[in-house]
Amino acid sequence: MMRLPVEKKVLSENQVLADQLRESFRQNGILCLNFISAPGSGKTSLLECTLSSFDPRTRVAVLTGDIQTENDARRLARFGFPVRQITTGGICHLDAGMISRHLAEWSLGELDILLIENVGNLVCPSSYDLGEHAKVVLLSVTEGEDKPLKYPAIFFKSELCLITKTDLLPHVPFDLAKARENARRVHPEMEIIELSSTTGAGMDQWLRWLESRRQRAFPDPQAINR
Amino acid sequence: MHELSIAVSLLEMVEAEAQRHPGARFHKVGLRIGELAGVDLDALTFSWQAVTMDTDFRKLELAVEWCPRKHCCPGCGEVLVVHDYQVDCPRCWRPDTLCVSGEELDIQYLEAETS
């Protein structure tokens, strides 16, 4: 019997592409965020609300992933910023190759922010690095507050947790304090913001986080190759 | 069900390694999978059987080393296995222990018969 050491990551091909994307985001001064949640937690609504609050000169673009349909891209394109739909045709997550292919038509030097809406799924997207600066996980108040404990991988890997649909809190038995506690049990350093894309409550705090995250990624704008 | 994509990547990597060792008859591949990797073992085994069915690797056994989530205390250096999300250091009670294991999704080795 002969044992040959291999010692490689199973998803090393994705990792190579993700590292290339990360480098290209760095060179072009683009903050890239990867939004992950269960289907129906409000990713598209959050992005609509976010895009509608941006100055039209903001250099932002969106890639939105779904198994089928161009519906989300149509919803998001109304705000005048570049948007592309990635239809995975059955695949339950986005991978770095899909991101590279869909970015090919855009000139990255003209962007400052790239928002990626992953396929609605709390499990599979957590395994695929897309070269993003941070993963953002959404948990809506119509879900169970124990979701962080049931799906620890994605809550562990996300820098920020957005608790969405807070306008519905009076109508659902969601325990906000318990949800925060559960998220912090899985990921003690995770930042948590509560918001509602319907009423706009909490949006200021989220937009401030976005701006400070961009400054943290690119503290010296002079260093960006333009 | 991203285990199917993972199985496809795994097969590609095994094929690439096997090409570097012509004539070797591989019967086992060693994997290291962490509890935070988000991989279901039954689904991976099922997917592996499906993707290898018509290949030379259909008898290749998946030998999985399951890696629990471990944290290391920056204060006293204690390494703890995290049970039920309890990440505080059991020796000095610092809450800010750092994850050092549990995210693995690696191929460790390929095993071949020598005859």
What does this structure look like?
The complex is a heterodimer of chains A (226) and B (115). Chain A is of the alpha/beta class and 226 residues long. Chain A is built from 8 helices and 8 strands. A 7-stranded parallel β-sheet of chain A has the order 4-3-5-2-6-7-8, sandwiched between helices. In chain A, α3 links the parallel β3 (60-66) and β4 (83-87). In chain A, α1 packs across α4 (96-103). The model of chain A has no long low-confidence stretch (mean pLDDT 94). Chain B is of the alpha+beta class. Chain B has a domain at 3-68 and 102-113: 2-Layer Sandwich (hypothetical protein PF0899 fold). Chain B contains 2 helices and 6 strands. In chain B, the strands form 2 sheets. Chain B has a 3-stranded mixed β-sheet, with helices on one face. The longest helix of chain B is centred in the N-terminal third of the chain and has 17 residues, at 3-19. The model of chain B has no long low-confidence stretch (mean pLDDT 93). Chain A binds chain B through residues 1-14, 91-93, 95, 123-124, 126-128, 149, 152-154, 156-157, 185-186, 188-189, and chain B through 1-2, 5-6, 9-10, 12-13, 17, 21, 24, 30-31, 36-39, 85, 87, 95-96, 99, 105-114. β1 of chain A pairs antiparallel with β6 (105-113) of chain B.
Structure, briefly:
The complex is a heterodimer of chains A (226) and B (115). Chain A is of the alpha/beta class. Chain A has helices at 12-28, 43-53, 71-77, 96-103, 147-150, 152-157, 176-186, 203-217, and strands at residues 2-9, 31-36, 60-66, 83-87, 113-117, 134-140, 160-164, 191-194.
